[in-house]
Design goal:
By secondary structure, the chain is α+β, with helices and mostly antiparallel strands. The chain folds into two domains: 66 residues, no CATH class; 81 residues, no CATH class. It has five helices and seven strands. The strands form three sheets. It has a three-stranded antiparallel sheet, with no helix packed on it. Helix 2 crosses helix 3. The longest helix is centred in the C-terminal third of the chain and has 17 residues.
Length: 170
């Protein structure tokens, strides 16, 4: 098989040696009786490509070797699941404690309302942080209610984690 070489690449094939009839920049090189995709030009000769190791491999003409594509790692984007958080909080003991506090003082009720609005409508983490801080402040000032216990904080933190929030109470 006769291969036409131009610009240091295989440009075609022919059955006839055409050296004198070729356009400028082309040359004829004899090579194996294979199709152009089965061979490569190494700068001096047309050689058969080695067997492709797997379907994932591609031919790299700059190195004349089979290569595996570089895997691109796409960073995971955290998406907060507000609906799941509402479901997890809805019937939890922590929610009951917060609701009880909201019935006792205006300050706790205002903070609870802000928390509800944030969970159902606003869905902004910054506002959630503010609402929780204000709610805890109000709960601390209510006799018989107080701030969350360490077990309740751990439970809330787990709910936040399960719903994709990076926020953690301390």
């Amino acid at each position: 098989m006769i291969f036409l070489i131009c610009n240091n690449e295989i440009a075609g094939i022919t059955d006839v040696y055409l050296e004198s009839e070729l356009p400028t920049g082309y040359k004829c090189i004899e090579g194996p009786n294979l199709l152009p995709y089965e061979v490569y030009w190494d700068g001096e000769a047309v050689l058969p490509k080695p067997p492709q190791p797997s379907l994932e491999h591609y031919w790299d003409s700059t190195t004349n070797t089979w290569q595996l594509p570089q895997l691109i790692t796409i960073p995971q984007i955290k998406v907060e699941n507000w609906d799941k958080l509402i479901l997890l909080l809805d019937s939890s003991p922590e929610w009951g404690r917060v609701y009880a506090a909201a019935e006792k003082t205006l300050k706790a009720n205002t903070a609870f309302t802000t928390l509800l609005t944030t969970l159902t409508n606003l869905r902004k983490v910054e506002t959630l942080i503010f609402a929780i801080a204000k709610l805890r402040e109000a709960m601390t000032g209510i006799s018989g209610v107080g701030d969350f216990t360490s077990e309740e904080i751990a439970s809330i933190n787990q709910k936040l984690t399960d719903c994709g929030f990076e926020l953690q109470l301390s």
